[in-house]
Amino acid sequence: MNLKAKFRLAALGLAALLMGLLIALATILSQKQAGELRVQLQIVDSESAGISEHFKDSLREVNNIRLRYTTDRDPAAWQQFLATSHELDAWLDRQAPKLTTSREMDALRQVKTAYEDYLDASRQIFARDQTNRTPADVLAEFTASRPQAQHVFDLGQALGRAHYDSRNEVLARANDTLSQLRQSVLALVALLFLCGVVLALLAYRDWIVPLHVKLVETQSLAERHEKLASLGMLAAGVAHEIRNPLTAIKAAVFIQQRKFPPGSSEAADAALVQREILRLERIVTEFLQFARPSEPDLTAMSSNQPLQEVQALLGPALAKDNIQLLVEDSTPLPVRVDGEQMKQVLINLVQNAAESIGRDGAITLRSRPDRKPLGLRETEVVILEVTDTGVGIAPEVEKRLFDPFFTTKPEGTGLGLSIAACIVQKHGGALQYQTQVNHGTTFGIILPRAA
After folding, report:
1. Architecture in CATH for domain 1-207
2. Strand 430-436 with 361-374, pairing
3. 234, exposed or middle or buried, with CB in 10 Å at 0-12, 13-18, 19+?
4. pLDDT tens digit sequence for 157-204
5. How does strand 323-327 pair with strand 361-374?
6. CA distance linking residue 155 with residue 108, whole number of Å
7. CATH class of residue range 299-448
8. What backbone torsions phi and psi does residue 60 show, to the nearest 5 degrees?
9. How far is Cα 31 from Cα 136, in angstroms, rounded to an integer?
10. Domain residue spans in the chain?
11. Strands 440-448 and 299-302
């Protein structure tokens, strides 16, 4: 191996080592953040006990003021009772946004109901006090109402306990999540080093392969095989290093999302995160589908069948933009294809055609017989065509039309046509196209004709 090749391998190993160090650093930082989170949750837990203490002290003050009024019959004491009881009622209302579980909310409702009954009983006593009654009668009535105040007090204690228990559950789930995160990062470190070693060995063993390909293939075909080989080497890393932690993140976000009140900013942020996670999952799935295409399950069918199924599936949606999806009448021709995979190719081509048209146009699906070279010999074929009246394909786009990850769409992945071409090749066919700027494009799926 020459010095240049050795230098490249050394650079690859150094890059893998640096990435491992970065992940190790991320692990340390996550552990530090986990410790801080535990401390914060413990502080919140200690504050939960303050709910019962505050309610107990406030209720005791309300009860004492009521007793003082009962004893002294002082109007000022009654006004103080009203003000203090109103403050406690407002404090109960402020606790509602802090509660996250049904048990807490149910406890708060019971407290408010019992407290309202307590205040109603106090108002009735005040109303009766305006009549001529002896102090002994009033005191006896107050004494009889003490069980009601004790009931309110007990419910306040139950509210504090419910809030405290819910915070303990949050703390336990947070600890579990952080532990799983640390384990995932450590597993990624091991996988990264293993991947680096494997890549280094493969690069060393297969260094001469691209040179051999350039001797027997055209320059464009050699470049395409290089890209496919690179994607194939990375597919396992993508599957293990992205999909698994993405699933864990999705589960954690789902758990947290249920704690947020509907309509809150937190719930909106969580929904946004969920949408972006789903988008990432779609990108990973399309990438793996391209890097590891599945073998087709070939079944004999009429060439018109997939065209008609795609028309029934996409026709109504395209009609909203005044785009007609037509299937030309033609003689059914026998083909052996995987129906689902062939529909996937046709759907991709029809959607691309619709985006090229925008509004007000037509897409025509047809099948026709022909004789074309496939493999090493000329043979009878069936061509499934998708013709549109769109703007055509610009020359600069044509050069990279089938390149993986090349796209002109803001939300595209650049893998649609690459996956379609791979599927057609797995069927022993080829994907061709003809285009003219401002006049439209025709894509043709060339398939061997079945006996």
Report:
1. Up-down Bundle (1.20)
2. unpaired
3. middle
4. 666 666 666 666 666 666 776 677 677 667 767 766 776 676 666 665
5. parallel
6. 8
7. alpha beta
8. -65, -40
9. 67
10. 1-207, 299-448
11. unpaired
